[in-house]
Amino acid sequence: MLKSRRKILQASVGLVLAGPMFGQRSALAQTPACDDSPTPRQIEGPYYTPQTPRRSNLIDGLPGEVLIFEGRVLSTVCQPVPDAIVDLWSCDAQGVYDNSGFKLRGHQITDAQGRFRFQTLVPGSYGNSSFRRTPHFHVKVQPPASPLLTTQLYFPDHPLNQRDSFFNPALLVKIEKKVQQPKLALFDFVVPVQAGG
Questions:
Q1: What global pTM score does this model have?
Q2: Alpha helices per DSSP H over the chain
């Protein structure tokens, strides 16, 4: 992944990380609480596509409920982790993954405060009557010179959560209650960071 990380960083030179997007929020609630417990790992799943574009808007004109997903990458001693790659992918509102392009796929690189932000859609569920996945995001977090975290994130109070064998309540995003759309989902990743990383 470190070779891929170098390629992603090189490919990102000259691209603008949406700087103003962080100006409105000075601090985010920690979800989960930052302690010495790293964010739990989960399987990658069959729909990962490498070499995603560096961008914050993943929607590409698809229909569905718009969701802002933001948070931080923190070390296990609650320090922000800058320059971490946060690679996000999910299915669309109908439960379909784009496996030929990059719709609902992309990555960000955390700023000096460890922050990232995506505009995406609330994913749908998919499967059949015997196996149905609850709505979820897939995420890879690669801190500099530290182990890769691959995990999934879930949505609170969804009726399929308890029927999904992968569901982990430690991986619930926090939905901020807002009168105006779009919804805001928050999650802070806690990762072990190697010395010098």
A1: 0.82
A2: 2-11
